[in-house]
Amino acid sequence: MDLEIDIEAPWPAATDWADLAGRALEALAQVAPELGQERLIASLLFTSDAEVHTLNREWRGKDKPTNVLSFPMLERDDLLDLSDRGPPEMLGDIALAFETCAREAAEKGVSIEHHAAHLIVHGLLHLAGYDHETGEAEAEAMEALETKALAICGIADPYGDRNQASGE
After folding, report:
1. Each residue's pLDDT tens digit, 4-45
2. What are the GO MF terms of this UniProt record (predicted)?
3. Helix or strand or coil: residue 43?
4. Alpha-carbon distances, residue 121 vs 22, 62, 91 (angstroms)
5. Are 138 and 129 in contact (CB under 8 A)?
6. 121 in helix, strand or coil?
7. I need a surface site. Which of 21, 27, 35, 152 has the fewest CB within 10 A?
8. Residues annotated in a binding site for Zn(2+)
9. Binding site, residues?
């Protein structure tokens, strides 16, 4: 998959966000091979809470910012049936909100880079048709893929505290 990346203020220039996104995608493709399809393209926008708030209101009817938005453009069955030959296929768009991401990272006691990598993995899985809101089994499957991909990147399980609290 090819990622088209746009990085806007306030995301700090000191971090190579494009490299971080590329590493997250490479790791994810190891655990969700459908995302390794070379014909796929996804756009990734690193932007502000204000922009994500606008997108969330206009496209989802939710008048608030959120950490990550995913806009799939390919049905899961079409993704799984995609042949290796043919023109590029747009998987979808992802937008990450800086202020929410930074606040959540601080609350979790993790770096903003690690939290952003998690949100990128999460967003890409949504583009691939995974949905944690359709049931407990789906949520657990999605979280397992996220955890495996992040471990490949050397990032701790973002759900560790929840799993320990529930006795898992």
Report:
1. 999 999 999 999 999 999 999 999 999 999 999 999 999 999
2. metalloendopeptidase activity; RNA endonuclease activity; zinc ion binding
3. strand
4. 10, 22, 14
5. no
6. helix
7. 152
8. 122, 126, 132
9. 122, 126, 132
Crossing angle between the packed helical segments 98-108 and 49-60, to the nearest 10 degrees: 110
Q: β-pairing, 40-47 with 68-72? A: unpaired
Query: Residue 102: how many CB atoms within 10 A of its CB?
Result: 18
- Cα 110 to Cα 36: distance, rounded to the nearest angstrom: 28
Q: Which domains are seen in the chain, by residue range?
A: 2-165 (3.40.390.30)
For residue 15, give the DSSP letter: S
Joined together, the tokens standing for residue 93 give 């768009």
Going by the DSSP 8-state scheme, the letter that residue 9 receives in this structure is: T
CA 46 to chain centre: 11
